[in-house]
Write a structure and sequence with these properties.
Layout (H helix, E strand, L loop, with lengths): L1 H15 L17 E2 L5 E6 L6 E4 L5 E6 L2 E6 L4 E7 L4 E6 L5 E6 L4 E6 L4 E2 L3 E2 L9 E6 L5 E6 L4 E6 L5 E5 L3 E7 L5 E7 L6 E7 L5 E7 L3 E6 L5 E6 L4 E6 L5 E6 L6 E4 L5 E6 L4 E6 L4 E7 L7 E3 L5 E5 L3 E6 L8
Parallel strand pairs: 1-27
Antiparallel strand pairs: 2-30, 3-4, 4-5, 5-6, 7-8, 8-9, 9-10, 9-11, 12-13, 13-14, 14-15, 16-17, 17-18, 18-19, 20-21, 21-22, 22-23, 24-25, 25-26, 26-27, 28-29, 29-30
Length: 341
């Protein structure tokens, strides 16, 4: 069992590595994608060495980009870099608190979470997470809607770090999987944790009560889920799945799969419009973004946006997409994705 577990941990960490180079196989999803139509590319903002994690301020005024050893604050009004600060190498997760006062960043092989104070535009005191049995693993971050607690996935150690953002406590919650990403219901009563159990075919979402911290159920999703996002009304959720280059659309109440949509190799970015009408997913391998219509549950056009399209966030009004590429953040008009499939 020790050998099997050790092998499983090594595989899970390999899947979490930022290059995802082991997944550069033949395309299994849609065609490589069409070029952006004229006028759709609104800006190209140089950033540090990728991969770059993105997060949007709640009011949409600022975009935060965590690249390898550097952090940038980008003013969205003019698409200009307002500040550049040094951070640790290899960021693995980023999140903004609901009130917009803090940006939280995790790093591969680090037990500290970087904290950026948006009121002072300066780095604050890092938050020490947890000692780990296996090196590495702290990744995606999700903050409960009331802003009191952040959950941090650690797939190598099969735990969730539960971090009280007032600094009073950091605790570990064991999960029956290798967790990679987390999404909360709109009321914050439950966390949906995506990850792998056993061979990860299918993938798993573990639904956990945030008040009792008890597992309520398990839901099957596509193989090797990498990202998860909740619809604004909480009625459904979405996962991007590495092993078959797809997006799963799941009914949150029944746990049944509504649709599975091909989106291209290495689907590493996922964002849902605030009105819930469209889901956007990136293919890092193809450098594309696919828009999925949640009314018809089918893909709109797939468009090429740049080399190594990794993360994607939306402006609050849904008019602009911000996509991190190999060395830049590109700003794309969402109207470009409104045509037929």
């Amino acid at each position: 069992m020790g050998i099997v577990r050790s092998f499983r941990i090594k595989v899970s960490v390999a899947l979490a590595t930022l290059s995802l180079s082991s997944l550069n196989c033949a395309s299994m999803g849609p065609a490589p994608g069409a070029a952006l139509p004229p006028g759709a590319l609104l800006a190209t903002i140089p950033v540090g060495t990728g991969p770059t994690c993105l997060a949007m301020a709640p009011d949409g005024s600022q975009l935060y980009a965590a690249s390898n050893s550097s952090f940038r604050v980008i003013e969205t009004a003019g698409n200009t870099v307002k500040a550049t600060l040094p951070i640790g190498p290899n960021p693995t997760g980023i999140a903004v608190t609901p009130d917009g006062s803090q940006v939280l960043i995790t790093h591969l092989f680090s037990v500290s979470m970087t904290v950026f104070d948006t009121t002072t535009n300066a780095l604050g005191k890092p938050i020490t997470l947890l000692a780990q049995r296996f090196t590495g693993g702290f990744g995606r971050i999700a903050v409960v809607p009331d802003g009191s607690v952040a959950w941090v996935a650690n797939q190598a150690n099969e735990i969730i770090a539960v971090v009280r953002l007032d600094g009073s406590d950091v605790s570990a919650r064991q999960v029956d999987m290798r967790p990679v990403d987390i999404a909360f219901t709109p009321d914050g009563s439950a966390a949906y944790v995506a990850g792998c159990r056993q061979q990860c075919v299918p993938g798993t979402v573990e639904v956990i009560s945030t008040t009792q911290e008890l597992t309520q159920r398990y839901i099957n999703v596509g193989p090797s889920p990498y990202r998860i996002a909740m619809a604004p009304n909480g009625a459904r959720f979405y996962t991007t799945n590495l092993a078959d280059s797809s997006l799963s659309m799941i009914d949150a109440s029944s746990g049944s799969t509504i649709a599975t949509v091909p989106i291209g190799v290495e689907p590493t970015g996922l964002a849902v419009a605030r009105d819930g009408s469209v889901v956007y997913a990136t293919s890092q391998d193809l450098g594309t973004v696919t828009a999925i219509d949640t009314t018809t549950n089918t893909a709109r056009p797939t468009l090429r946006v740049g080399n190594q399209a990794r993360d994607v966030v939306l402006s609050p009004d849904g008019k602009r997409l911000y996509v991190s590429t190999g060395d830049a953040v590109v700003v794309v008009a969402s109207q470009a994705f409104s045509g037929g499939s």
